[in-house]
């Protein structure tokens, strides 16, 4: 079953929209990827809050609560028997003749359907490599917008060079985040990550990790990391809905911790593992 606006479709190809959906023409919409473990949503409230934030920031009038989106998503899980996977959901400004200003009358278009996701166990055991890519995105990275062009290009660059993820840096100086993940460094037992402002997308996994750090009494500094500091880190890892906590063992040629997984990263991986036993 897939959700399209107010309807549920059994067969995915029956769910159709218009080529003039502003999602296609302008990327005028927002999205979420929500993880499901043991048949239950992981941090659904936080995802729905962030979705409402993204909608508000681009002035799409859709009220997550009054549309009872949560209930519909719970149904979607049940109907599709999703046990271990994820739901992709997007809301666009709707269908209108192609013209830049917001249409006077358009109804937001929503769709949501299950996507297969499996835990990246190999990457979590062995760590991944990242490559630095200049952050050429716009300055509202805090909105989970459908416009992912530079994210896509950066990820492609990384893959072409044999790295799993790109690490963005801005102004020839500080690192921001990964192309689809948040970045964390560890120095002298402290976790350092970019503050949740307009330069990064505040990941739900990032939020989970900051809570974990508090529980485990691991000190956190939310501040910019410079490129010079990057080389001096003891450990590094990325976090996202699909990568969970994945250690980073090298950035370009530079290796951390002799290419092995650091102690703080390991503690957070173990802590996260407990969180997802829903
Ligand atoms: C979605 C996303 C993340 C990770 O967010 P999660 O909610 O943890 O999945 C990080 N950075 C970018 C650019 C993203 O789009």
UniProtKB/TrEMBL annotation:
Cofactor(s), by name: pyridoxal 5'-phosphate
EC number annotated for this UniProt entry: 2.6.1.21
Coiled-coil stretches noted in the UniProt entry, renumbered to this chain: 59-86
Molecular functions (GO terms): D-alanine-2-oxoglutarate aminotransferase activity; pyridoxal phosphate binding
The entry's keywords: Aminotransferase, Coiled coil, Pyridoxal phosphate, Transferase
InterPro entries: Aminotrans_IV, Aminotrans_IV_CS, Aminotransferase-like, BCAT-like_C, BCAT-like_N, Class-IV_PLP-Dep_Aminotrnsfr, D_amino_transT
Cellular component, GO annotation: cytosol
GO BP annotation list: amino acid biosynthetic process; carboxylic acid biosynthetic process; D-amino acid metabolic process
Catalytic activity: D-alanine + 2-oxoglutarate = D-glutamate + pyruvate
Origin superkingdom: Bacteria
Purpose of the protein: Acts on the D-isomers of alanine, leucine, aspartate, glutamate, aminobutyrate, norvaline and asparagine. The enzyme transfers an amino group from a substrate D-amino acid to the pyridoxal phosphate cofactor to form pyridoxamine and an alpha-keto acid in the first half-reaction.
SUBUNIT field: Homodimer.
PANTHER family according to UniProt: AMINO-ACID AMINOTRANSFERASE (PTHR42743), D-ALANINE AMINOTRANSFERASE (PTHR42743:SF10)
Family: Belongs to the class-IV pyridoxal-phosphate-dependent aminotransferase family.
Name assigned to this protein: D-alanine aminotransferase
The gene coding this protein: dat
